Every structure is written in C-alpha cells, then in structure tokens.
Amino acid sequence: MTEQRAINGLAEMVAAGLVSPAQAPSLTPVEEAFRIRMTGAMRGRVLGVGDAVARQFVPEAAEMIIREEELADPIGDEVYSPVKGLTHRYPDRVILHVTKTCEVYCRFCFRREAVGDEGTLPDTDLVAALDYIALHPAIREVILTGGDPLVLSARRIKGLMDRLSMIAHVDQVRIHTRIPVVAPEKVTEALVAALRGARVWVVVHTNHAQEIGEAAEAALARLAEAGIPLLSQSVLLRGINDSVAALEELFRKLMRLRVKPYYLHHCDLAKGTGHFRTTIAEGKALMAGLRGRISGTLIPTYVLDIPGGYGKVPLVRDHAEPLGDGLWRITDWQGGHHLYRDPER
Ligand code: SF4
C-alpha cells in the first residue's frame, strides 16, 4: 500500500477529498476553535467519507454546538494541579502531562482545548514535577499523558524512564498513547529499547477495529515481544462504535494482538462533542450485550470521568443510580454524590 501523507488543517482535508468544497466554509469556525490533524496511517484506513475512522478526525459543523453542560476542562485536570504539568487527584498516583502535542487531533478529545498549544513541558517544569513526585512517597504510579507522550523522541522517553526509575516509591509508570495505532512507524526499535525493562505499562487508545492496520499490528507486536504489558482504552462514540458488533470486533482484535481491553470511556463533556455522546443507559446496554457473548478477559470496564474532577467511576449500580428522565446520581470514590444528565435526543 502506498504511504499517505498526514493531513493538517481544513484546506488539506478538502484537498484529500474528506471534506467537500461546499462544506468547507461552514467548517472554518471549527478550525479556528479546534486543531485539525490526521496521520497518513489513519488516512490509509479510511474506506469512505464519513466512516468509522474518518469521523474521528474529520471536522463536522456539529462541533460548533456547545451545550450548556460542556466544559473546557471536563475531567478537572487543572483543579488538582499542584505544579505545572502534574495532576494529583488520587493519593497514590499522578498524571504527568509531558506534552500537549498529538499526532492526530480527535474530534471528541476530552482535552481538546488544551492539546496542541504549548508543545513539550519545559525542562524546568518537568524537574519541578519530578521533585514533587520524589517528595510525596504516597505516589506509587506515574501516568504519562498529554497530548501523546510517545510523540517525544526515544531519547527523551529513555531519559524520563531513567529519572522516574530513580524515585524508589514509584512502582509503575503508565503511558497512555494513540501512537501505536495512529502512527505505528513511530514505534521504532529505539523507542522499544527505551521502554524495555522499565516498570511500564502501555495503554493504547483505539476505538474501532478498522483503525488497526498491518503496520499497527506490527507495532503492537514489537511492544509485546519486548515484554511490555499492553492495555487498551476506547471511547464510546455514537455512530462510530456504539454497537455490540463493533465493540466485539475491536476487543477480539485487541486480544489477538495481546492487548487487554481496560477502559471503555463514556464520552466526556468536552465542548462541541455532544453529537458523539451516547446516553449512559445505551452504554450499559452495550456492556450487557457483550457479557456472555465474549470472554470476560475481553471486557473492559465502562467508566465515567465525573465532570469537575471528581475521578473516574465504573458505570455500575453502586456508582450510577438512574433517577429517571436521563438523570443519574453518580457516587464518586469518596462517597460524594453528583448529578449527571444524559444528552437530550
Ligand atoms: S490523541 Fe488523545 S489527547 Fe490527543 S487529540 Fe486524541 S484523544 Fe485527545
């Protein structure tokens, strides 16, 4: 297959035939509000305009519909940020935002107002964040996210792994990334070598089996064969993967590639993403449809990041009580209660 070029911006989307010239003017405000980028690998996985891969990256006019409940920081990263680049929400783990850059800009991104802006965390801020981690022995896990941490060079990743390995109380590093699927050529031998032997888990973000081509399969194999444990996270997306068949195909494919499905996220309340959001009841029905149909080892936990930064909870009865009419009482990990309303149809 011929290698495709990445697409940056609306004009290139039009040139690639993914947006019609007639549609383009209505999408200019979308481009002004949110970044647009799709890798060559993802372009190569599009089978038709508006399909399950295209819709994840091609802008739509619906993104300018900002609903009352949608937020600039839907999961509350900033609320729990003790120093720049760090989120410390739970006692035993922190999120280290090493970069704001991504290889793709997903139309449903929960950090869409933050990604793409500032690039890599400056070294002075990184040192301050590492000092904070070193001074807090309760922190046992460091989660690298961004943006996408694996946009950093293998040399920088190795340097970061080495620095984190010197903090005795950090048991585990978790890297959340879309790179192995959307830019598999970046999973180089040098990157694999940087991760090999580190106490690291890689959590691969992928939402549809159609995204995972031969190059992605090979990239995941390189990581698996280096002994790096692989998990997946997906976002439940209306019109893209909101069927038992689509989820089954994705999770079976991941299992064959030695990736354990970990999280299925309810789509967060990021601005302009309402057209992607299912109701919680729809998500729960899908999970029920998977139970018994596929092995329990393939079933991820369906979770909601409670808006405002109250943490993640599984969408099971103990944490999500239906109050009727699309209203839910969500109980956070500390026993606090929050009301959550499904999008109106
Ligand atoms: S790769 Fe992740 S952080 Fe980047 S735009 Fe997509 S969902 Fe957002």
Automatic annotation (TrEMBL):
Give the signal peptide, or none. Answer: none
Question: What residue stretches are annotated with the Radical SAM core domain?
Answer: 88-305
Membrane-spanning residues where? none
Q: Which Pfam families match?
A: Radical_SAM (PF04055)
Needed co-factor(s): [4Fe-4S] cluster; pyridoxal 5'-phosphate
The record's annotation in CDD domains points to: Radical_SAM
Q: Which UniProt keywords apply?
A: 4Fe-4S, Iron, Iron-sulfur, Isomerase, Metal-binding, Pyridoxal phosphate, S-adenosyl-L-methionine
Q: Does the keyword Metal-binding apply?
A: yes
For this protein, the record's InterPro entries field holds: Aldolase_TIM, Lys_aminomutase-rel, Lys_aminomutase/Glu_NH3_mut, rSAM, rSAM_sf
Q: Which SUPFAM superfamilies match?
A: Radical SAM enzymes (SSF102114)
Q: Which family does it belong to?
A: Belongs to the radical SAM superfamily. KamA family.
Q: Which PANTHER family match?
A: L-LYSINE 2,3-AMINOMUTASE, LYSINE 2,3-AMINOMUTASE-RELATED
Q: What is this protein called?
A: Lysine-2,3-aminomutase-like protein
Please name the source species.
Fuscovulum ytuae
